Structures
1.
Amino acid sequence: MAAPWGSRFNRHSSSVAHVPELMMGSSEGAAVSELARRILRSRGVKISHNGLLSEEIELLSNELSDNAPKIIFGIESIVRVSEDIYFEMQDSKDGLISVSPPESLEIVWIKKTEFVWNNLKQKIIELGRAGYPGCVGCAGPAANEPWNETDSRNQIL
């Protein structure tokens, strides 16, 4: 007999994958969601990284092309000597995954943790499949509010 939804197996009735770090409503989750929305609103993004994400960035680009064909933008992978992951958007404000925050409050900062890249990747795919930015309400109520980077950093630090 199949286990009912919400059983001890922690299953969810929606088609959205269960990502515990994002479902907790943490400040990291909010920053991840904001960066994912910025990426999907952009017409193109350059992701600078240490080279270990090259294949994953290509897979993310392919996943978006296959599952969210209405989203038309390019993802460029740039390898550089740094442990930070920097997101430069063509027509949106940038983002950074790093141990330390950037000086500019225009850049959404996500503190680097073991799972943060996977959380971001999952959120981008989830929102893309839902039709963001063309969908109504699919990104949650926070998507309609202005982003407050100062508050986000204060909660993380």
2.
Amino acid sequence: MASFLILHGPNINMLGRRDAAIYGSKTLDEVNKEIGQVAKDLGVEAIFYQSNLEGDLVTCIQEHSDKVQGIIVNPGPLTHYGLSLKDALIDSRLPVVEVHLGNPWAREPWRRVSVISDIARGQVAGFGWRSYTSALQILAAVVEEESR
């Protein structure tokens, strides 16, 4: 069974209390349940991790990179400056999909800069929690196709 690491960066633990127009109204636990259901339907495993600390996210990637087949990451504000996170994603040698609940390109100009995007297979943004489930469906299909 394929496994995928679902990384939630800083402030994602505050879902349900943040601006619902941008981030939706679901809590992180509710978002993880939605992702978990899609994972079950796809016959894959989702491993969830959230931290407000970049170093903890790096450690999680390092600990899981030989146990998972891909990474879905919502870097939160680390999107714009998380270079050690970027290095850990590169070093994992795994396919990465960058996810955002809101649409960074429809917000302030500084939010449009991602240090992760150039090493990601792709990005899914602007669809709330469905950004994660769409990313999982896409990444699971890509990994399956590439393993043939």
3.
Amino acid sequence: MSEVVFLIEDAPEGGYIARALGESIFTEADDLDRLREEIRDAVRCHFPNEQTRPKLIRLHFIRDEVIAS
């Protein structure tokens, strides 16, 4: 695997939630800089062997926007 993709969503209580597609990796943080650190750490923990660890981490942001009509 050369890449792992994370879906990033706004957390209901504030901050962000990240979950990997096809892997059991979940993390959260209060801001985007901290979230990036948490994601890197979670990927290193999930793939302890550097040879099998994905080389790229892609972040896909999902945002809902509601506007009044």
